[in-house]
Amino acid sequence: TEVTEKLEEVVIIWIKQIRQVLVESEQMRREADDIGPSAELEHWKTRMSSFSSLLDEIKSSRVKKILSILQAARSKTLKQWKELDGNITIAANEAKDNVRYLYTLDKYFGPLAKASPVTMMEHVPSLMNTVCMIYCTSPYYNTSERMTSLLLKITNQMINTCKTYLCEG
């Protein structure tokens, strides 16, 4: 029982740390007002990396051994652990899925940032079709909050490109 208690203490510390990571990942991002859409992709790539690393750690043999000992001891902490494990898996899958969908927009980010307003407009119809496809097919990115954020960043990039064009002309 002494070993079980020590292991439960360790798992409780892990639970607190994982909850903190999940809470921080859901907090509002503070971003500059004129940030472009490539920042959205970078955000999700960073999040994907963090949650993938966390998942790798959770699935490690060391953690599995501790959990199997606690399971044999019928520890009550395992219920909380399993719930958090599921939440981490969902967050990792969301980040991976969002990166995959946002990469389909990546080919537009360069022309959006470097083109003249006239040539930039040639890319807008296919860009918007791709955004629509993401909205219709992505299980995670199809909320008005996520779409509003993405469209705002696309608009910011278009405005910044036009400002640059006007200042250079």
Automatic annotation (TrEMBL):
One of its GO terms (molecular function) is dynein light intermediate chain binding. One of its GO terms (biological process) is microtubule-based movement. Residues 5-167 form the Dynein heavy chain tail domain. GO terms for cellular component: axonemal dynein complex. InterPro entries: DHC, Dynein_heavy_tail. It comes from the Eukaryota. Pfam families: DHC_N1. This is Dynein heavy chain 8, axonemal. The lineage of its organism: Eukaryota, Metazoa, Chordata, Craniata, Vertebrata.
